[in-house]
């Protein structure tokens, strides 16, 4: 029996296989894609290798441990493949969790096969970290509603084929009165634009000009959308931490190789105490982050209490750690790491966003503090 949060032989082999596929098959497809746009050939390849199906199993619940192992392994070799898979899973997970049989049968096979692109549409221009401040209005219209307003910072928008959209169907502010809807991309009145961001991932806005939704489009219960959104984020936050751990490991690998090969002041960089101590700190923080992510995933799968706190801790520590490790790796490499196309230049742009999305670092600290006194 292994020690807690040590991967068994089967898990290690699977992670190694995911990394092999990412480096050999997925990375060339990622490089051939257009930055800031959905890469459908990459999604098709992820599906062909069974990776989307592993994240979205046809039978049984999504396992947090599978998500974190997938995302960490992919991120270490190809961040674009990691993000493409994660966005598919995030976008359709509310349907897998709370959708109707008709919704699942219509969309899950298409998303798992990589033929349909999914999006999770929660954030708005005035409701980012404060997700309860949603303003997208769902006005009653016969037996359904008309959606009017805007979503912003939505991954895969405006190219997604299906969106899980959170809108306000009830009066007042806050978490109450928010409903989740499944909105196809070709629904009349739905528009949007691309956003040009630091990292090369598809991100955009969605505009709703009286978009008609009916009872058949409701995911879960009317007024229960905020609970669905938060439950989804509780599952995915540790895997955001896993994405960060994968990037930190890639940066650490690069820094170790460079420090062993690069000579300065009469010897290899690794013999300079300032460099060797930095590498030791990078490795220690990365290992601690990985353990925190694995612990949160194991607790989620076991149904243990305190999932929100554990998930927040994992995302907080892992994303902050990755920022430090990538920055330190750049410092060890010097100017060459900032040249366009260098691995660390790529990671430096990639590593910033996870400290903001799915709840910024400051929001994670607020969640942890509240949970401590619950």
UniProtKB/TrEMBL annotation:
Location of the Acyl-CoA oxidase/dehydrogenase middle domain: 119-209
The Acyl-CoA dehydrogenase/oxidase N-terminal domain, residue ranges: 9-114
Pfam families to which the protein is assigned, alphabetical: Acyl-CoA_dh_1 (PF00441), Acyl-CoA_dh_M (PF02770), Acyl-CoA_dh_N (PF02771)
SUPFAM superfamilies tied to this protein: Acyl-CoA dehydrogenase C-terminal domain-like, Acyl-CoA dehydrogenase NM domain-like
InterPro entries reported in the protein's UniProt record: Acyl-CoA_DH_CS, Acyl-CoA_Oxase/DH_mid-dom, Acyl-CoA_Oxase/DH_mid-dom_sf, AcylCo_DH-like_C, AcylCo_DH/oxidase_C, AcylCoA_DH/ox_N, AcylCoA_DH/ox_N_sf, AcylCoA_DH/oxidase_NM_dom_sf
Swiss-Prot/TrEMBL keywords: FAD, Flavoprotein, Oxidoreductase
Cofactors named for this entry: FAD
Listed PROSITE patterns: ACYL_COA_DH_1 (PS00072)
Domain Acyl-CoA dehydrogenase/oxidase C-terminal, residue spans: 223-372
Membership in a protein family: Belongs to the acyl-CoA dehydrogenase family.
Record protein name field: Acyl-CoA dehydrogenase family protein
Organismal lineage: Bacteria, Bacillati, Actinomycetota, Actinomycetes, Kitasatosporales
